[in-house]
Amino acid sequence: MKHDNIERNLGILLVFTMLAISVGGMVEIIPLFFIKETVEKVDGVRPYTPLEQRGRDIYIREGCYLCHSQMIRPFRDEALRYGHYSLAAESKYDHPFQWGSKRTGPDLARVGGKYSNDWHTQHLTAPRSLVPQSVMPNYPWLAKNELKYDDIQDRMKALRRTGVPYSNSQAEYQRNVEEFGADVAKTLHIPDAEKNLVAQAQLGNYDTDPSNITEMDALVAYLQVLGTMVDFKKYDDDYFVKFR
After folding, report:
1. Run means of pLDDT, 10 residues per run, the chain, 244 residues
2. Domain count for the chain
3. pTM to 2 decimals?
4. Which ranges does the record mark as transmembrane (predicted)?
């Protein structure tokens, strides 16, 4: 009878509903404040370099995430097609993450190193020249647009405020040397961001045109790093070894 009265009284029902939601929320959220590490540390995972970060910005700007996910689920068919399932640590420096919920095109979590720079440049310029059945739009302007990177330091400072360990002082730089090694730490130092971006673009020649630095350079640099930071042989378990 009391239960019936609660269901018939909208005000009382609302109060009890909010109480139930509040208690449930506190049970789920409060323990997280007492856990020092909620994401397991994985060797090799690092923040993006300035060039890779600009490429990621372009990836988001062009809406690539609407058709491509970056999250391999722990199922047999996923492992057979894409490789080891995604680890939470792989996305720890992504703001926002690119897990996605739709696959008009394939998952890109392990696309790094799978194809050459030439292939990516051609595929982004004219997808059907390589994959006739593709429904992906052409992106020819990426190879024509010079990359804007005069604000890269501001972008990195903004990400630093979200917890991405880019360094802006000598003490922070030394912290990154200890955490990631000297070679990686150099690429994460904000005062040298423009210099590091240019150096990586010229060395990598991602758009196959060394005469200038384009948006294609940045986007291909980003695609080529996806899935390459972790040595997944260390994380293989019996389930996935059987299906390789």
Report:
1. 71 87 88 70 93 98 96 92 91 93 93 96 97 96 97 97 96 96 97 97 94 96 96 66 52
2. 2
3. 0.83
4. 12-34
